[in-house]
Amino acid sequence: MTLLPFIVLIGAMFLMTRSAKNKQRQAANMRDQMGPGTGVRTIGGMYATVKEVHEDAVLLEVAPGVHAFYAKNAVGAVLDDAEYNRIVHGIDPEDSDEAADAADDTPVVPDDASSLTEAEDETADAEAADEDKKTDLSKPSAAADAPKEDKRDDDADAK
Fold first, then answer.
1. Is the pTM here over 0.70, yes or no?
2. What is the rounded CA–CA span in Å between residue 102 and residue 116?
3. Which burial class, exposed, middle or buried, applies to 88 when counting CB atoms under 10 A from its CB (0-12, 13-18, 19+)?
């Protein structure tokens, strides 16, 4: 009866180490898939193209003509070509003639409701009212610059 908690603890530790080893194995397999021309995302979130793969390092092209060496462990994900092009270049693989034809049939929805209302007169009145309420940014007059009388403790107002 007293051994039961220890057995449960050892079993939990075994399961946790097993799942961690599986994750490490999957990450190593993913990094082995890298080759020249493959799109990757680093653990810092930078997208780049693999130029060369070395034993523990990889040469990435982070911008046209800009190369940087990274450790293989710094590669967070190896992306397939369609996903890399969608993220980096904005090329959607679904953009084809069929998708363009389907897009022509869909109704256009405005971003805001202002184009749905017919209150053009109200907006014109509101714009005219805004012009009337302009803030005066001119320099204040000399009367406003005059010093105010200082109240002292010995005045009659003090209690």
1. no
2. 24
3. middle
Strands 39-42 and 66-71: unpaired
Q: Would you write out the chain's pLDDT as a tens digit for each of its 159 residues?
A: 688 888 888 988 888 888 888 888 887 888 878 889 889 999 999 999 999 999 889 999 999 999 999 998 899 888 888 888 888 888 876 664 455 555 566 666 666 666 666 555 565 566 666 666 666 777 766 555 555 665 566 555 555
Residues 56, 43 contacting (CB under 8 angstroms):
no
Q: Which domains does the chain have, with CATH numbers?
A: 10-97 (2.30.30)
Nearest-angstrom CA–CA distance, 139 and 148: 18
